[in-house]
Write a structure and sequence with these properties.
Layout (H helix, E strand, L loop, with lengths): L1 H28 L19 H7 L4 H10 L4 E3 L3 E3 L2 E3 L2 E4 L8 E3 L4 E3 H23 L3 E6 L24 E9 L4 E3 H4 L5 H13 L5 E3 L11 E4 L10 E2 L1
Parallel strand pairs: 5-7, 10-12
Antiparallel strand pairs: 1-4, 2-3, 4-6, 7-8, 8-9, 8-11, 10-11
Length: 241
């Protein structure tokens, strides 16, 4: 009986050791998927990248350092507003640097975690999708802004919108290098390249933002993609519609 128990123990230890070696090998090759690996904007998007981006909301200095190391040019903005309608650590993208996209209007200011996610969205989602569907890159993004002192859906009561702290941005469409426009309002429905592109960039955004709302969600989002970094805790729900 003792021999059988020893054999079982040896088998268990062998299997555990083998599993540990597999995990170690995977972790070395895919650090972006590991919860203990620090976020690095120059690395591929991993399974936990979105949650790591959201946690940057509590560390503005680290967020700005990550943008700088990734070659993103930006301007740190002074605090604005007060109470529920305010931001302390917003940034505005600057010309040049590692970003491929321009934003129209050019004065877009967002929280730093939103900016970091937008940079990764540009590199890993938007541009690959544009090359796949159109054979050319996206030159500019049309948006409806970020900071807006209001509650959700502009109601008089209820929870404050993530826009009230510049922690959200509404994307209206895209402009390709040849001037072609892709509009969420006009091109979301259908079977063509524009609709496929919009749905692909929406789905890719779900790996980077805490909340992604599209025309599939409701009528209020018929003309834009709402992207935000709402902090719902380490294991909180993430919205993708």
């Amino acid at each position: 009986m003792r021999t059988v128990r020893l054999l079982k123990l040896a088998l268990f230890l062998g299997v555990a050791g083998f599993a540990g070696m597999l995990l170690y090998g995977y972790a070395r090759n895919h650090p972006e998927d590991m919860p203990w690996t620090a976020l690095d904007l120059t690395q591929p998007v991993g399974a936990l990248t979105g949650r790591k981006l959201t946690r940057l909301r509590g560390d503005a200095e680290q967020c700005r350092a990550l943008l700088s190391r990734a070659g993103v040019r930006f301007q740190a903005l002074p605090p604005k507003g007060s109470g529920e309608c305010s931001y302390d650590h917003a940034v505005r993208f600057g010309p040049g640097g590692s970003l491929n996209l321009a934003y129209r209007l050019a004065d877009l200011a967002t929280s730093c975690p939103v900016a970091a996610a937008l940079a990764l969205w540009d590199w890993h989602v938007v541009q690959p999708a544009a090359l796949e569907h159109f054979g050319q890159r996206v030159a500019a993004v049309d948006h409806f802004g970020s900071y807006s002192c209001r509650r959700i859906y502009g109601r008089a009561e209820g929870a404050w919108s993530e826009h009230s702290t510049a922690n959200a941005v509404d994307i209206a469409g895209f402009r390709l290098e040849d001037g072609t426009r892709v509009s969420v309002l006009s091109d979301w429905d259908g079977e063509g390249a524009k609709a496929a592109f919009l749905r692909q960039v929406r789905s890719g955004a779900c790996d980077l933002f805490a909340t992604v709302l599209s025309p599939d969600y409701n009528e209020a989002h018929r003309d834009h993609l709402h992207l935000d970094q709402a902090d719902r805790g380490a294991t909180g729900w993430r919205g993708c519609r």
